Every structure is written in C-alpha cells, then in structure tokens.
Amino acid sequence: MKPLFLFITLMLTLLAKDVSTEPFKKLAPFKHPNIISIDRAYDHGSLYEVIFTALTNQGSKRISSFLTKDKKVIIYGQAVDIKKQAQLRIPLDLAKIKKEADIVFGSGKPAYIVITDPECRYCQVFQRKWKAFEKKFTLYVYMYPLSNHAQAEQMSFYVMNQKGNKAKANALIGISNDEKAYSKFKVSEKQRKKLYEKFAKNSALGDELGVRGTPAVFDLKGNPVNWQTLVK
C-alpha cells in the first residue's frame, strides 16, 4: 500500500479527545488487505485522525490519516491548524515516552526526545557535544539502528546492555569518539529477541513522530527541533 501523502491546511476547532477505533474498521479504506491494524482514533473537532499500521514497500509503517466528520473524505499525511500555525497531531503520551526511553541524559530544562542511530555520523557529531550541555537540557533517547548501517545494531546492543543511564550514555558517547568496545560484546539469543522487540517499539515511535532521518530531535509536543541549534 502506497498512500498519497498530502499536506493540507484547515481551520480547526480543537475539541480533541480519543474515540473508539471500531466505527472506522467498517470503512472501505481500512479494509484494505495491506492494513494490519487500526491503532488509534482521535477527534480533533473538525476532523477525525486515524492512525493505522500497514504493509508498505519499506515494511510495516504507522500512517496518519484524517477523515471529514461525515466520513466521506480521507486524507493521508499532515494537517495544520491555520490559527496556531502548528501541525495537528494526537498528543504524545509523555509519561510513557519518559518511562520507556533507552537513555535519560541530562538534568536541565527544556527536555527533548532524541531518536539516534549510533553509527550515523551526524548522530555522532551531536553526541560528542552532549556533555557540554548536560545541565542545560534533558534528553529522552531512543536507539534507532538503521538497516543500511552495518554496525548500528551491534552498537545498539552494546549500549542498551550497560547498567544505568550514565553507563549507557557514556557507551554511546564513547562510540561517537571511535571507541571499539562494542565490537567484542556478545549478546544471547534471549537478549537479542528482547532488544529487537524494543527496536520495533522505537520504530513505531519514530513513525508517530515522523522521523525521516537521524538524529531526529523533537520537543515534548512532538514538534521537530534542529539538533544543531542545541549545540551552539
């Protein structure tokens, strides 16, 4: 399934709340054989937002769609509240995001969500700067090893098997400084399975946030942030 992604702008009344996914399962677009599940539905006031998981040419992906209230028109992609000049999105579950982060780094405000691939050279540039702003920001870090990076998975195994946030952060920063301890790390099949399950969850969060590359940084409302502005 390759939906046409459109960018739409609408004036919206934000009476937002979660709604049941059941009524949407009966609609023709969501009966497509490539659709795996309908994950969440939200009432934004003028539109419904429906998040679903579908098989695509790039594997399973979480996709956002918007429906008019009469359920006669469906749009795939993004919607913008003209008045607020902000992307319309289902609010993030911040308690869950903070709890499930692979690494929590720093102690300052504001806080950011960071999606990182340990082999990505731009991620490494970013991570080498972390200790300089450790008391300025808090980072909720999610490991996101990309399939086109041969060592990213092994690096992630190594980082995530360290004990505690400080050790994990130091391991990730160490990799960014060309340390090679990760290459000798052994992981059991049980550990590997558990980590793959966590990577899948991280990937789902990446889809929800709209990650297109790494490093990807977002504020706690889900708005993208240019990582380079944090290291100046």
CATH topology of the largest domain: Glutaredoxin
- Strand % is 25-35%
Question: Architecture of the largest domain in CATH?
Answer: 3-Layer(aba) Sandwich
N to C succession of SSEs: EEHEEEEEHEEHEHHHEE
Got a strand count?
A: 12
| Residues in helices, as a percent range | 25-40%
Work out the helix count: 6
Radius of gyration from CA coordinates: 19 Å
Measured between the Cα atoms of the first and last residue, the distance is 42 Å
Name of the top-level CATH class of the largest domain = Alpha Beta
Helices and strands in order:
Elements (H helix, E strand, L loop, with lengths): L4 E6 L6 E3 L2 H4 L9 E9 L3 E10 L2 E10 L5 E8 L4 E3 L5 H7 L2 E4 L4 E6 L4 H7 L10 E6 L8 H9 L4 H12 L12 H21 L6 E4 L4 E2 L7
Describe the structure.
The chain is of the alpha+beta class and 232 residues long. It folds into two domains: 5-88, no CATH class; 94-230, Glutaredoxin (3-Layer(aba) Sandwich), CATH 3.40.30. The protein has helices at residues 22-25, 94-100, 121-127, 152-160, 165-176, 189-209, and strands spanning 5-10, 17-19, 35-43, 47-56, 59-68, 74-81, 86-88, 103-106, 111-116, 138-143, 216-219, 224-225. Strands 1, 2, 3, 4, 5, 6 and 7 form a seven-stranded mixed β-sheet that branches. It starts with a strand and ends in a 7-residue tail after the last strand.
